[in-house]
């Protein structure tokens, strides 16, 4: 969890990608929130697309907005990452 100890951690599914690294995410209870990606995801160039499952942190004071902190791996994905090149 973040430095904010009273943040609510939830999971949801990205339903649409908006400009400015913003996303509409639907929670398990069908509630839709506006979310932005955290600095760590931005720093490591983690891509998020519609249909991805994500973990988010929400403030208990504003339940309409969230921060995406983790993109869940797909269990049945056939994606194989390209081999890494060694740097000498």
How would you characterize the overall build of this protein?
This protein is mostly beta strands and 88 residues long. The protein has a single domain, classed as OB fold (Dihydrolipoamide Acetyltransferase, E2P) (Beta Barrel). It is 6% helix and 45% strand. It is built from one helix and five strands. It has a five-stranded mixed β-barrel.
Fold topology:
Elements: E1 8-18, E2 22-27, E3 32-37, H1 39-43, E4 53-59, E5 62-71
Parallel strand pairs: 3-5
Antiparallel strand pairs: 1-2, 1-4, 2-3, 4-5
Q: What's the short story on this structure?
A:
This protein has 88 residues and is mainly beta. It has a single domain, classed as OB fold (Dihydrolipoamide Acetyltransferase, E2P), CATH 2.40.50.140.
What spatial form do the alpha-carbon principal axes imply? globular
Q: What is the CATH-assigned architecture?
A: Beta Barrel
Distance between the termini: 37 Å
Helix content: under 10%
Percent of residues in β-strands: over 45%
Would you identify the regions where 5 or more consecutive residues have pLDDT less than 50? none
Q: Could you report the average pLDDT, rounded to the nearest whole number? A: 89
Q: Give the count of structural domains.
A: 1
* Counted beta strands: 5
Number of helices: 1
């Amino acid at each position: 969890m973040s430095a904010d100890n009273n943040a609510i951690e939830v999971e949801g599914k990205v339903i649409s990608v908006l400009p400015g690294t913003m996303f509409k995410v639907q929670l398990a209870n069908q509630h839709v929130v506006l979310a932005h990606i955290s600095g760590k995801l931005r720093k490591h160039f983690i891509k998020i697309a519609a249909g991805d499952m994500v973990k988010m942190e929400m403030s208990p004071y504003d339940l309409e907005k969230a921060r995406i902190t983790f993109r869940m791996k797909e269990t049945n994905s056939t994606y194989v990452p390209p081999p890494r090149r060694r740097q000498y």
